[in-house]
Request: fold
Amino acid sequence: MRSICFYFQVHQPFRLKKYRFFDIGNDHSYYNDYENRTIMRKVAEKCYLPANQLMLDLVNEYGDNFKIAYSLSGTVIDQFELYAPDVLESFQKLFATGRVELLDETYSHSLSALRPEDVFDYQVNRHKRKVKELFGLQPKIFRNTELIYSDEIGEKVAKLGYEGMLTEGARHIMGWKSPNYLYCNAINPKLKLLLKNFKLSDDIAFRFSNQAWDEYPLTAEKYVSWLNAIDPNEEVVNLFMDYETFGEHQWKETGIFDFMRALPEKVFKYSDYQFHTPSEVVAKHNPVGVLNVPYPISWADEERDLTAWLGNELQNEAFENLYKLFERVKELDDPELWRDWLYLQTSDHFYYMCTKWFSDGDVHKYFNPYSSPYEAFINYMNILSDFRIRLGL
Reply:
């Protein structure tokens, strides 16, 4: 029997308020609390609550036959605690079923995997403690921010004791190889790699409501026929996407919830696939080979690289200046400084500074609250200047 592995990313950043030059040294509060609360409640009502109820209904209806997985960034968990305890409770109910897997990641959805191990390890261990505290779980599988992966990053993850890791089945890495198998890390083969099938994932996440798409409308029956068309020797189809696909990116009116509700029944009726969690895929299937990824890849943009976050001088300057502060934050060991240092690492802040308005420009513009990348950079650097003052630098 072949495997379908559904994984959903759940993340919200702590959005920064407008922070002017004259605020430096006078205002140590950096976050737009009203906007963070408003957006969280909006997404909770449109996505998190109805989608969690749908997934719980499917788990209860199909028992051990329907399984899914999530990762929740530390920043979204913190916002659940602040603004949406009802969402946190609904996730706790899902994980309590024993059929829903929770993955580990960096606490603040950060780019810390690109830095020395001590910075990365701190983020991962803090996330591990948080999910143990709230959900009583100790994840075996790791997903890095935006599926960012390289051989070196995989080795770091293996050293932390994880059995498997998720990443993108990027064309320029895969070549002739299929993403529909299990692979292993080139440096430490003990770490197994699950690769996103971006075509079938994006059919749901991005194309579902596009009426100009030649496959519109997408039905559960049609989707299962595509799964059946895959070479029967290929063992696992990894469907990885933002959880906000349900109700936020694809509104309820598009039929996205109806599609997901119907999919398991059609899979069981018309195919030989089973639903498995990432840890089950790692246990069930053997790697077919080593995946060589010398330079970092991600699931973003056509290029599947890091240029959405570190593709220009603004982003690189902000990134380098932030991470120079780690040793000082560690030395002072103040809870509020740790909190702000974590939240300022969130990859969204660097994404807003992106000047790459090419193949995926509309996506970057849609999710960017600033009028320009330069505004995002100036706002961030003003905050970082105040943060340095608090560190005594």
About this structure: The longest helix spans residues 33-62. The radius of gyration is 21 Å.
